[in-house]
Design goal:
Blueprint (H helix, E strand, L loop, with lengths): L13 H5 L15 E7 L5 E7 L1 H4 L4 E6 H6 L31 E2 L5 E7 L2 H8 L3 E6 L6 H4 L15 E8 L1 H9 L3 E12 L8 E7 L4 E6 L4 H13 L6 E4 L15 H13 L3 E4 L2 H7 L3 E12 L5 E13 L27 E9 L13 H19 L3 H8 L12 E2 L5 E2 L4 H12 L1 H13 L3 E10 L7 H6 L8 E7 L5 E5 L8 H13 L6 E4 L17 H28 L6 E4 L2 E4 L5 E3 H9 L13 E6 L8 E10 L6 E11 L6 H20 L31 E4 L17 H18 L13 H12 L1
Parallel strand pairs: 1-12, 10-11, 14-15, 20-21, 27-28
Antiparallel strand pairs: 1-5, 2-4, 2-6, 3-5, 7-15, 8-13, 9-10, 9-12, 13-14, 16-17, 18-26, 19-20, 19-25, 22-23, 23-24, 26-27
The structure holds pterin cytosine dinucleotide (MCN).
């Protein structure tokens, strides 16, 4: 149906999910299946002196126990890193081996040491207790700054100062000069704390080797099946890729943590090959806490230079990025190309410089988590701007307005070239900000704040603007920056003889509603009902290739790959229609699923053309039968959504408890396919961002034990702690994709964290509180009030 784009169509996949009919990896039961449990290190840093698995081998139900030595003997390699960021001096990034099962040493609590496989999961768990591992415990280091200092425990013999790489971007000299002449400098030192991802569905993998065909199937709760197949077959197991199938059925949330290639994917498949039986592993929640890649964990010093008129003249930052014990699949690009490049924010800052040191510690690996680098960048910029405004006694809204990049559409006016390597596609930041202020009724909020203070109430208003880079691209550029993968997307569109359409996309939904929005794009373009479209994803044997879902890329990149195939369908369809209508192609119009000879009532429908393509009795000479195309789309640039978020909080002076009273989000994600889904994404994202500000944070002790590795100890936000979000939009289409769309999946997370912290600091500034470290627990906030009034 025409005009499906822009409609709030209800999610077609929700019937299945809400009625409990989703099919997740753990729902799969294969004949003769066995169950795996991993023996994991209880120590953060230790030599493994001996592993005695003889008792476990003979325990009831056990069919196999394997260790790192077995894998090494079989030639199984370590898990590869997919992005190389070299040292500033040109030295190659330190990428020590990341063994699938520990070899000689363990480097974080949860590092896998052995795998036990039995007839039932309980039997495997019981036998895993019987594997006797002799550890020589070593001192651990968990803090990324401490890890670089002399005398710190060394994780790897050949990685001095535990430093994986250092990296810088921007003009250091120009930036230092801006600071030398600044009339005001704002400085913040803080930790952007480590977060655990906590998708509802724990990770799961089933390896299924079929000896009769010498064929390997991995079922995995991954966000990107094709990339896992490539890494696992070519780089870890040395298997012919065409004999490996990766199937990722429904995925119950990923938020980044299921992008990466994990040990259990290799282990279940390899063990299945040894045992000639399927092997299933499903994470217990405590394993998810210890082994799903974590996010954030930056220790940062950030500075902003301003002149006497409140113009921002420079920004510089030094960050220590904690990588955890090994380099996870995309870890190096997160604190660098997804963080440093966003430090321009929405402002004209003429000099920006960022320096990053990436450090190994005895903690779980850190990689992309919703926003991935961009929340850290936005936090840095927006906390600085807000603090500078308070220090200078300028309204934070006014300071921002003074410094916005002027509007540009990327068509008439060129894209905006930043100081930190990006070219923003299009934006009208001031207009979006104005709408945000109006929606929040900002002027009135300030009056309410004055009144509240008179009553002894601590009301705070926090602003945050943000820009993010979605749909990382183009492949040639990211390749030159160290990506070891292309970042295009593919889509096959198969028009069936009856005119129904099957779409095979490399984007893989984990809850984002692709079955609905992609079908809307197809229905809109072909003029057919939504019900006539099926979206197929998550299976390397069905979908030609794909780069998966992350970086809010699926619509802007995956959707555009579909558009390319749809264009080819329409082009070929026009040839068939012209033949049937005995007209010239250029005399035809295509609208509402009909090709019509211009100026006549002669037309033919999409389904008739489809049927003719498969029953080509009356058919254009020389034209191939069939109506099916596969396309690959490599975008010209990122898309750059942006927005303005306003948080209103009240702080209880007696307890330090923060209550979020209002939350206004005015986002610009270009054109929109489904406003309801976009709102849902903003709601989920904002919740995630608020949770970082107020609640979440992985806490390690000095021995590298995760102290809050369970839902009893690690807080997540609940609906009754959040206000009803007030969302609105401006629309600045992306100039370089035909849909004009930008990404939305991470926007809320990026903006919300600084909005909340800014609001709480705003509530307490007049008491003398100047900064607060996240998460803003009642205890921390209460203590800050006490300290300020002492
Ligand atoms: N959309 C739209 N119009 C736009 C932009 C997007 O209608 N202008 C729609 C899309 O078609 C899609 C949804 O909004 O249905 C999100 O699209 P997009 O921004 O392209 O993001 P992705 O689909 O690539 O999703 C990835 C993004 C990321 S990076 C994380 S992390 C995240 C997120 O999505 N993880 C999620 N949202 C999540 N939502 C759920 N339920 N679960 C997760 O794990």
């Amino acid at each position: 149906m025409a005009n499906l784009i822009g409609q709030s169509v209800k999610r077609v996949e929700d019937q299945r999910f809400i009625t409990g009919q989703g099919r997740y990896t753990d729902d799969i039961t294969l004949p003769n299946m066995t169950f795996a449990v991993l023996v994991r290190s209880p120590h953060a840093h230790a030599h493994v002196k001996n592993i005695d698995s003889s008792t476990a081998q003979n325990a009831p139900g056990v069919v196999g126990v394997f260790t790192g030595a077995d894998l090494e003997a079989a030639g199984i390699g370590g898990l590869p890193c997919g992005w190389q960021v070299d040292f500033k001096n040109g030295d190659t990034m330190k990428e020590p081996p990341h063994p699938v099962l520990a070899l000689g040493k363990v480097r974080h609590v949860g590092d896998p040491v052995a795998i036990v496989i039995a007839e039932t999961r309980d039997q495997a768990a019981d036998a895993a207790e019987l594997v006797d591992v002799d550890y020589e415990v070593l001192d651990a280091v968990v803090n990324s700054v401490t890890a670089t200092q002399d005398g710190a425990p060394q994780l790897f013999d050949d990685v001095p100062s535990n430093t994986a790489f250092d990296w810088a971007l921007g003009d250091a000299e120009k930036t230092d000069a801006a600071f030398a002449t600044a009339s005001h400098v704002t400085t913040l030192e803080y930790t952007n704390q480590r977060l655990v991802t906590n998708a509802i569905e724990p990770r799961c993998a089933i390896g299924d080797y079929d000896a009769s065909r010498d064929h390997y199937t991995l079922y995995s709760s991954t966000q990107n099946p094709h990339v896992i197949r490539l890494l696992m077959s070519a780089f870890v197991m040395g298997l012919p890729e065409h004999k490996v199938r990766v199937v990722s059925p429904d995925v119950g949330g990923g938020f980044g943590s299921k992008i990466f290639h994990y040990a259990e994917e290799v282990l279940t498949l390899w063990c299945s090959m040894q045992l000639k039986r399927p092997v299933k592993w499903t994470a217990q929640r405590s394993e998810s806490f210890l082994t799903d890649a974590h996010g954030r964990d930056h220790i940062t010093k950030a500075e902003l230079a301003l002149d006497t008129d409140g113009n921002i003249t420079g920004l510089r930052a030094k960050t220590y990025a904690n990588m955890g014990a090994y380099l996870s699949t995309f870890a190096p690009c997160v604190p660098t190309y997804l963080h440093g490049t966003l430090l321009q924010g929405l402002y004209t800052t003429p000099a920006v410089h960022v320096d990053v040191t990436a450090v190994f510690t005895n903690t779980t690996c850190v990689d992309a988590l919703r926003g991935a680098g961009r929340p850290e960048a936005t936090y840095l910029v927006e906390r600085l701007v807000e603090t500078a405004a308070h220090e200078l006694g300028i309204d934070p809204a006014e300071l921002r307005q003074k410094n916005f990049i002027p509007a540009f559409d990327g068509v008439e006016q060129p894209g905006y070239e930043t100081q930190v390597a990006l070219v923003y596609d299009s934006g009208d930041y001031a207009a979006n900000f104005q709408k945000g202020l109006e929606k929040a009724n900002y002027a009135d909020l300030r009056l309410q704040q004055q009144a509240a203070r008179k009553e002894g109430r601590l009301m705070g208003i926090g602003l945050s603007t943000f820009i993010e880079a979605c749909g990382i691209a183009p492949s040639a550029v990211v390749g030159s920056l160290g990506a070891r993968a292309g970042l295009f997307e593919s889509a096959g569109v198969r028009v069936q003889p009856t005119g129904k359409v099957s779409v095979y996309t490399g984007s893989h939904s984990q809850g984002q509603g692709h079955d609905t929005t992609f079908a809307q794009v197809v229905g809109d373009q072909l003029g057919i009902p939504l019900d006539d479209v099926e979206i197929i994803h998550g299976d390397t044997e069905q979908v030609p290739f794909g780069m998966g879902t992350y970086g809010s890329r699926s619509l802007a990149v995956g959707g555009m790959a579909i558009m390319k195939s749809l264009d080819k369908v329409k082009e070929k369809g026009a040839k068939i229609a012209a033949h049937l209508l005995e007209a010239a192609e250029e005399d035809l119009d295509f609208a509402d699923g009909q090709w019509t000879v211009k100026g006549t009532d002669q037309s033919i429908g999409f389904a008739d053309v489809a049927l003719t393509a498969y029953v080509p009795h009356n058919y254009p000479e020389g034209l191939e039968p069939g109506l099916e195309f596969t396309s690959f789309y490599d975008p010209a640039n990122f898309t750059f959504p942006f927005g303005t978020h306003v948080a209103v909080v009240e702080v209880d002076p007696d307890t330090g408890q923060v209550s979020v009273e209002r939350y206004v989000a005015v986002d610009d994600v270009g054109n929109i396919v489904n406003p309801m889904i976009v709102d849902g994404q903003v709601h989920g994202g904002v919740t995630h961002g608020i949770a970082q500000a107020l609640l979440e944070g992985a806490i390690y002790d000095d021995d590298g034990q995760l102290l809050n590795g369970s839902f009893m100890d690690y807080p997540l936000p609940r609906a009754d702690e959040l206000p009803s979000f007030e969302t609105d939009r401006t629309v600045t289409p992306c100039p370089h994709n035909a849909l004009g769309v930008k990404g939305v999946g991470e926007a809320g997370t990026i903006a919300a964290t600084p909005a909340i912290v800014n609001a709480v600091v705003d509530a307490l500034w007049h008491l003398g509180v100047r900064d607060l470290q996240m998460p803003l627990t009642p205890q921390r906030v209460w203590q800050a009030i006490q300290d300020a009034s002492a």
